Amino acid sequence: MNQLTPKQIEELHSLLLSQKTQLEQQLLDAESAIGVVTLDQSAVGRVSRMDAMQQQSMAVSTRAKAEASLRKILKALKRMEVEDFGYCDQCDEPIQFKRLKVQPHASHCLKCQDQLDQA
Ligand SMILES: [Zn+2]
To answer: Which pTM value belongs to this model?
Structure first.
């Protein structure tokens, strides 16, 4: 048996919450970086506009990544609520605590994740 103890779940829960806060902040930062270029387009020179556009496209990809991670984290938190957290989506085996410490939003055990990565 390899089920998570309430203490371990508690630990992962606070990990997820702090990651959620970080991602929300990242999203806000990205939003404002994206917004700046649109607003200031006529006010800045050519070079700084290129610069700003580059920063904007970086912000767009940061935002996409943050949004994807945030979705996984919210899903994991939801699964905690319904006490369905820590099990592999594919084989239903408990996911190792060691793995969840690194990636608390993991939805697959290592074995299945390997298979998915190779597919
Ligand atoms: Zn599995």
So the answer is: 0.80
